[in-house]
User: Which sequence fits this backbone?
């Protein structure tokens, strides 16, 4: 209900109450007047007539004054009667002209003063004139009563229309109350649903983040353990090969370099001395038979040893190159693994950042939705309160 409708409704109710009060007063006045008019001939109260001389010589104002004085005398009597227990209004003239004379300016609005003046001519000074006055008064009062009944019907019709409007307002208030209740229940359900969705999203996001972190950590640890084991194995093999190679190189250097012929040089020196001693045939024979075979044998042993150790040295060098190549490959794989780990960490950080952004957006959306529904609910509650106040005021104004 808007403010103009409420003002019109209040104005209608005030007018209805005033009309009821006026109608009740008019009914009481008319009832008392009809009773007095019916009892007027029985009581023998006749109007005081004027003489023809005074009527002809006097002015209309004088006649009116006389009539008014006569009316005031009867009014004084009625005032005295009202003071001794009557519930009627003090003045008959005021009762008859206060409401109807101003509202209905027609033939029925002729005052009793005119009727009495017209009936107070010198030709009508008898009992018949008194009866004609009573009949005229009854006729005027009947017409006024009919007019009042028509007005009362109009007021009753307007009151019915107003009550229909009140019922329509009550039905509208009931509909608004039901709508407000539905909105409140819907807002409660939506708030619970939003909270449930937010809690589910938070729990799912936490589980995904934890699972992603654990998966990345497990993969990183597994790859690191695997490559560290391979690197450790290759390092131990390289150390073993290096130690063997160093031992063989030291042995070769010891026996194949200038210092390696220490045990051969004495044989060569003794062979040279014996060969150059030409005068001693036994010495030469001994050199030919003993020293040369021993020297050949020793040289042959050295040649075989050098050849054998050279093959081992080449094999060790090849193995060393293979191990070095594997170590380089493992180092490259380790570098690639570190790059993959860094990329996985960046991806996890990106996922976490996106999850934080989505979580923040979802929280903002939840807050906006909640604020929107809360504002709508507050408006509905305020409107419902206003309607309750208007309905209470309408009921208070409509109460008799």
Assistant:
């Amino acid at each position: 209900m808007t403010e103009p409708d409420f003002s019109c409704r209040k104005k209608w109710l005030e007018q209805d109450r005033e009309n009821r009060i006026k109608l009740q007063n008019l009914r009481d006045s008319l009832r008392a007047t009809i009773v007095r008019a019916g009892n007027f001939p029985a009581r023998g109260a006749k109007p005081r007539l004027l003489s023809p001389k005074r009527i002809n010589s006097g002015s209309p104002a004088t006649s009116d004054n006389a009539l008014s004085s006569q009316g005031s005398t009867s009014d004084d009597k009625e005032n005295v009667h009202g003071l001794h227990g009557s519930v009627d209004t003090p003045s008959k003239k005021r009762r008859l002209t206060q409401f109807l004379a101003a509202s209905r300016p027609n033939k029925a609005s002729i005052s009793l003063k005119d009727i009495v003046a017209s009936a107070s001519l010198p030709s009508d000074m008898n009992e018949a004139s008194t009866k004609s006055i009573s009949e005229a008064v009854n006729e005027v009062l009947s017409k006024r009563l009919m007019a009042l009944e028509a007005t009362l019907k109009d007021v009753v019709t307007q009151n019915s229309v107003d009550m229909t409007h009140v019922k329509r307002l009550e039905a509208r208030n009931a509909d608004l109350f039901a709508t407000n209740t539905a909105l409140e229940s819907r807002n409660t359900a939506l708030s619970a649903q939003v909270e449930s969705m937010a809690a589910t999203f938070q729990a799912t996001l936490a589980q995904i983040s934890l699972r992603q972190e654990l998966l990345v950590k497990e993969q990183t640890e597994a790859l690191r353990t695997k490559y560290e084991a391979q690197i450790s194995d290759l390092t131990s093999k390289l150390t073993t090969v290096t130690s063997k190679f160093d031992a063989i190189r030291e042995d070769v250097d010891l026996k194949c370099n200038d210092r390696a012929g220490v045990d051969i040089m004495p044989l060569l020196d003794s062979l040279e001395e014996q060969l150059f001693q030409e005068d001693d045939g036994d010495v030469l024979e001994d050199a030919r038979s003993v020293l040369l075979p021993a020297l050949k044998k020793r040289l042959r042993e050295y040649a075989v040893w050098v050849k054998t150790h050279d093959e081992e040295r080449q094999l060790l060098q090849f193995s060393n190159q293979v191990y070095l190549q594997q170590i380089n490959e493992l180092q490259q794989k380790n570098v690639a693994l570190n790059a993959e780990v860094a990329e996985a960490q960046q991806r996890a950080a990106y996922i976490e950042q996106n999850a934080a952004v989505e979580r923040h957006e979802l929280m903002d959306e939840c807050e906006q939705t909640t604020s929107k529904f809360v504002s709508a609910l507050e408006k509905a509650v305020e409107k419902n309160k206003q309607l309750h106040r208007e309905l209470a005021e309408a009921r208070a104004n409509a109460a008799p």
Notes: Residues 183-390 form a domain with the Helix Hairpins fold (CATH 1.10.287). The chain has two domains: 3-164, 183-390. The CA atoms of residues 205 and 355 lie 7 Å apart. The two ends are 23 Å apart (CA to CA).
